[in-house]
Design a protein that fits this description.
- This protein is mainly beta and about 240 residues long.
- The protein contains 3 helices and 14 strands.
- Strands 1, 2, 3, 4, 5, 6, 7, 8, 9, 10, 11, 12, 13 and 14 form a 14-stranded antiparallel beta sheet that branches.
């Protein structure tokens, strides 16, 4: 099963280099020397997928009416973190953009408890779900320099405390805040830097992404976790309009 997951991920990675994930991003680069506000690191972009567009990369998404999109992170799906997200564009201009988003996640979690009679540690595997509302605000600092701030709240059922699950993992996240900056080196090359902090589980994270045209390759690293610490970010992919 692990080999299958790895092979599928490699196929998606190679396939993603054939085209681009966001028609809006590509046109922005051609029409302006400014770095587009749509370029982010790990935060959801404040721009939605154009209506009638299907995007296939490491994220599968579809746009509706240029107002909202629906997507799933295929990398997380491969690790049995089943997820779906909806994003709505609230406002966008040359210098500011704002979007709200929400997600639903279902996954299995190994929790730890102590048997009061024997004082032995008991590991129990159970299914948990979460609803994750959030938002992204993007703003222009300079023509080639943008900032992004956002985050999400996680409402999980059942509630998982910091001591409840083992091992500590980057695949289980709580209320998180993000801050990012993007530097446009030239119209076809940008560097995005981002930091995150999980307020629920006290987990800091940091990473970077390199944009070559509309293709993104990067990594976000979560400190102090034993699995899922380094999570790849691969953008670009097959785009089809219908």
């Amino acid at each position: 099963m692990k080999n299958f997951k790895t092979s599928l991920f490699i196929i998606l990675f190679l396939f993603s280099q054939l085209s681009y994930s966001a028609t809006r991003r590509k046109s922005d680069y051609k029409e302006s020397t400014e770095v587009p506000l749509s370029v982010t690191h790990i935060l959801p972009s404040a721009f939605v997928i154009p209506g009638g567009t299907l995007v296939l990369g490491t994220t599968l998404g579809i746009g509706f009416f240029d107002v909202f999109d629906v997507s799933t992170n295929l990398y997380l799906d491969l690790y049995s973190v089943y997820n779906v997200a909806v994003k709505v564009g609230v406002y966008s201009s040359k210098d500011f953009a704002f979007a709200v988003h929400g997600g639903y996640v279902s996954q299995s979690v190994t929790s730890q408890s102590v048997d009061p009679s024997t004082l032995q540690i008991i590991n129990t595997k159970s299914s948990v779900t979460s609803v994750e509302p959030g938002a992204t605000l993007s703003y222009r600092i300079m023509p080639q320099f943008t900032g992004h701030i956002g985050g999400k709240a996680v409402i999980r059922n059942p509630v998982l405390t910091k001591q409840a699950f083992v091992p500590k993992t980057g695949f289980i996240q709580g209320n998180t805040v993000n801050k990012e900056f993007v530097l446009g080196i030239n119209p076809e090359l940008s560097l995005a830097l981002g930091g995150s902090y999980d307020l629920t589980y006290d987990t800091p994270g940091a990473g970077l992404s390199l944009y070559l045209g509309s293709f993104q390759i990067g990594v976000h690293y979560y400190f102090g976790v034993t699995e899922g610490a380094a999570q790849p970010l691969l953008g670009g992919g097959y785009t089809a309009r219908f």
